Amino acid sequence: MSVAREQVECLHHSLIILLCLAARGYAFRDDARNGRFRALIFTHPMTLRMSYERRFRVPFRFLLLVTLAACTREDVASRAREPAAPALPASGTPRATVTLDAEDGQWTRAAKSLSGIRYSQLAQITADNVRNLRPVWTFSTSVLRGHEEAPLVVNNTMYILTPYPNLLYALDLTKGDSAPTKWMYNPKPQSEAQGVACCDVVNRGPVFANGSIIFNTLDNHVIAVDAATGAEKWNTKVGEINNGETMTMSPLVVKNMVLVGNSGGEMGVRGWLKALDLGSGSVRWTAYSTGPDSEVLIGARFKPHYPKDRGKDLGVSTWTGAQWKIGGGTVWGWISYDPTLNLVYYGTANPGPWNPDQRPGDNKWTSSIFARDPDTGEAVWAYQMSPHDLHDYDGVNENLLIDVPWKGQTRHVLIHPDRNGYVYMMDRATGEVLSAEPFVHITTTHGVDLANGMLRYEPSKHGRVGEVVRDICPASPGGKDWQPSSFSPRTGLVYLPHQNLCQDSEGLEANYIAGTPYVGMNVVMTAGPGGNRGELTAWDPAAGRAAWKLTEDLPVWSGTLATAGDVVFYGTMDGWFKAVDARTGAKLWQYKTGSGIIGQPMTYRGPDGKQYVAIMSGVGGWAGAIVAGNLDPRDSTAALGMVAAMKDLPSKTTKGGTLYVFALP
Amino acid sequence: MMLRPLACRARTPLLLVGAALAVVGCRREERRFRESPPATTPSAVRVSALQPGTMADTSHMPNPYESSAYAQSEGQRLFGWYNCAGCHANGGGGMGPPLMDDEWIYGSSPENIYNTIIQGRPNGMPSFAGKIPSPQIWQLVTYVRSLSGLTPMSGRSARTEHMNFYQGAQSMQGAQTPKNSFRPPASEFP
Amino acid sequence: MLLQAVHTQSSLDPVGPLAANTARLWWFALAVATVVYLLVIATACWALARARRRERRGELLDPGGEGRMTTGVTWSIAATVVILLVFLGYDLSVGRTLSPIPKAHPLTIEVTGHQWWWEVQYADSAVHDRFTTANEIHVPVGQPVLFLLTAADVIHSMWVPNLAGKKDLVPGYTQSFWFKADTAGTYRGQCAEFCGHQHAKMAMFIIAEPLQQYQTWVAGQRDTASTPTDSVAARGHTVFMTGTCAMCHNIEGTTAGSHAGPDLTHLASRRTIAAGTLPNTRGNLAGWIVDPQRIKPGAKMPPNQLRPSDLDALLTYLQSLK
Fold first, then answer.
1. Contacts of C293 in chain B (CB under 8 A)
2. Distance CA A570, CA A585 (A)
3. Would you say residue A96 lies in a domain?
4. Mind telling me how many Å the CA of B140 is from chain A's nearest CA?
5. How many residue pairs bridge chain A and chain C with CB atoms within 8 Å of each other?
6. Has residue A526 been placed in a domain?
7. Which of A588, A655, C6, C22 has the least CB density, counted as fewest CB within 10 Å?
8. Residue A332 is part of which domain span?
9. Chain B residue nearest residue C303, CA to CA
């Protein structure tokens, strides 16, 4: 919303207040719960009730003056939380960088590197020749649901893991473009697991380590399969679908341990991260996201940077009663690892239920980032991005571990583009927030106070049960959902694929019944300002602003890939696979695949020495649920409100999973 | 003089129409708190319409609450209470399939829906046997069927009291025309 | 037995400053109305007597009648205006004493009206110390208590006449009011806005008790339900968790976490069941579980068919929830 429009709206509201007061007396009421002053206005055409802040708590005769002043203030505030206008980094200024491992032409984990940056040093495909890119072979997965996974390439074999039923294919790359199937492993997950998977039955990919392909199944099994033969090495069940738990995340292997987390923040699940022994699959440690310090693995080494995150048993005391046992904070996103500090970083998901009235308190440690020692699981620091989250702003998004010039020195940071709409840049040793700048339009908060780490909430966006709150931006999938971003040390830019959605919501009383949804919210989403539902933002972490932005009609629900050829790849939900110039964002090439793309692009060096780029096509996920699940667009609250924003998707794409591999001629 | 006999003659049908309306109206609003509807459905509820050989019985078991507005509104309340809405939203679906369209994976008859709730279905529908008493399941059946316009109009509630989520449907919950273009069959869908 | 100690539910038996003000206004109105009534009757009698006298004297015309009529009407109007103004002034002054919320209120209680029971949440500033109960509100004597009111379905109204006036509970909207109980005791309250079938059986009890007693009660309510130790109660626990009960009720510390019906974490510590409908005895509880529709037709709780042994175990478990 533009500043001018907000000002006009504010004046409009003020005028209506004055008219109402003059015409029919006033019914002011002291809202003792949060010290706000409310005006009841029954004649307003848009809304039955509006909440205004304390600034109206003045005698009637000063009201006009004060409202006008308030409009000016609103105006300043709105400017503050609007993302800054894009600007290319000036040449010559220091830019963000990263220390890279030697390029082996393989892709052994979803994010390629432990630092989670999805950058390949392969440079055959460049900004100059990418326009010649053409598909060389394809592979149908036989699954019709959303394909969010990244293919892996190890030892000239490509491994593809499908969404439920989690079929694992090994394709032989040495046989040229025919790429025959070496073996297929079917874990036969329980079909009932589909009923507790909140947002499509996706999987975000396997990981390769120690000669095994390790992956999670929807029904909570972690399975290691021999990469050469497809024989099962071990199979550990770590969760229970009857409690609403599922697993969709891509594991990370660190120091002979497989790190996995659960999904189910919409089902009253208690979140955890588990470390499994790489050799045997036995659980070494479990770190819960809520509960007493002994179960969150908070001990003597725990030193959060901000006082708000310090204290004993905060995972219990910031909840009412025993609600922490069903409070969410699942770990379904990305894990990164810094070998120098020996710390893993990951985010925890939203608190449950969505309806915030039912869970008073900060609800720690949901919507937070943890830094843990992988050897023991012990937490070293934690930071809660969204205390007492109001709008399902999970904190599970990726953490990119890079080095950024900051105020004259190089800082080892993690870049975390959060669902609440801010790109957090944090010192990854201490958890200090160096900057938190908006990358989308935000109405729910007014920025992050860097002095105490607090997120400044907008009180009028805090809906109560039975109350409809309008214009919540970003919407529940956040400024950016799970779709992972990439970083190129050559440009110093982070490429954020994200959406531009706002929503109206109405709180409802949620009943916890184990194994059923625990949400308590009617949500209706719409496109954000500008009307486009997606964006690709090139973020300059050193400047804390966007270098350039590309708008997309549909949410950009795929990951991005940056290469040394200065090309950035991503896909759109109507099926276009696109390459843009990493420096300028200029569109270089695109190819229409069979279904909408929500997967993670990757690149590898084939046995023939050529560089290939691969992407899964197959629409679904939360944003594509309307197609993957045949949902009915007449109900705007379908798929937790996502359907309202995606009504036209069925006319733009159909379902079906296919792998596409591209190369230069 | 001509008017009187005419009015007299018209009175009887008018009365009959009025009485009929009153009876229908009463049925619509009838609240049977202590009545026990059939606890279980007949033993052979068919989910498939395909019967080898000669078609046997194709009759359906009537839902005792089919035209009761009260049962329908109670069903709507329970649809929220028991978290049906968590998966099926307000009929449009989400984790579970939509209920307001004209596709019924496991059948649209009252006893089919009853059995789907009681037995659960292998692709994700939980089994609520022993969790929800039988009369309440029949109320849920009534509401679920009303979403796609399968229950009589007279039994439907006027509007919901929540955020308006059916576009252009200010006054009538559920759908009148359960037809939807652009939607491929959902054969593999739970 | 405890119910016998309940005060008469009456505005004229005030035990708090707000109710006392209201009661004074009521007595004042009664006094004024009585005086006016007597005056009107007396005047009417006087007029009748005068007319009778004149008739006896055979006078057909009353020469000064028209003048007296004007005077009479003028005086009546003036008196009415004065009395109404006095009422208005007094009413406003009473209203003023009722409306401001005391700044120091150590206790905030959130009440949500449901068809047909009251959900009560003690909103402690330390969130972990919050707890939920139903239909019975314990308050410390001599301390102002702030109530935040809302409703889950339709409009209800909270009215405990011995303590304060009515306040409506409106869905999607939070109202506040407060009262202070000066005398320890149990005071009955009632929904005062017609809210459906069982509006009449939507009662609540305010239990005003000395601070120490109150604090003991609070400490007990904050506890989660203990796991049953004896085998019968343990079986009852299983019946509760696996059957219909857990679909609607919450017992803190167990897997039952639904809020459709009243919180049962400390059910056995309550005096009544079904919102003040029945004393909380084993027999009443059994009758209520098996067929609530006989006791409270239309109540949202369905009849439950349980095997006798299961019912017995369930009752033992519920009675262990002290």
1. 33-34
2. 12
3. no
4. 17
5. 79
6. yes
7. C6
8. 119-663
9. B133
pLDDT score at B156: 76
Interface contact C257-A31, CB threshold 8 A: no
CA–CA separation, A371 and A382 (whole Å): 6
Give the pLDDT confidence of C82-124 residue by residue, as tens digits.
Answer: 999 999 999 898 888 877 777 777 799 999 999 999 999 999 8
Q: What is the DSSP letter of C35?
A: H
- Average of per-residue pLDDT values in chain A: 89
A566 given a catalytic annotation: no
| Interface mutation target, options A188, A627, A635, A646, chain B, most CBs of B under 10 Å | A635
Query: In chain B, whose CA is at the least distance from the CA of C260?
Result: B81
- Tell me, yes or no, whether A124 and A61 share the same domain: no
Which domains are assigned to chain C? 1-222 (2.60.40.420), 231-319 (2.60.40.420)
Label residue C66 by pLDDT band (50, 70, 90): confident
Counting other chains too, the contacts that C302-309 makes at CB distance below 8 Å and 24 or more residues apart are: C302/B133, C302/B135, C302/B136, C302/C244, C303/B34, C303/B36, C303/B133, C303/B135, C304/B133, C304/C243, C304/C244, C304/C245, C305/B133, C306/C239, C306/C243
Of the pLDDT bands very low, low, confident and very high (cuts 50, 70, 90), residue B171 is very low
The predicted complex's ipTM stands at 0.87
The answer to whether A177 is a known catalytic residue is no
Q: Is residue A172 annotated as a catalytic residue, yes or no?
A: no
Find the catalytic residue in A203, A216, A262, A350: A350
Query: Rounded to whole angstroms, how far apart are CA atoms A346 and A370?
Result: 6
A49, A320, A509 ranked by CB distance to C152: nearest: A509
> Which has the minimum average pLDDT: A166-175, B54-63, C197-206?
B54-63
**Chains interfacing with A (3 or more CB pairs < 8 Å):** B, C
Spell out which residues of chain C touch residue A513, defining contact as CB-CB under 8 Å.
246-247, 257-258
Q: pLDDT, tens digit, for every residue of C188-247?
A: 999 999 999 999 999 999 999 999 999 999 999 999 888 898 999 999 999 999 999 999
**Chain C: residue nearest A327 by CA?**
C257
pLDDT in tens, A83-119: 776 666 556 678 889 989 899 999 999 999 999 999 9
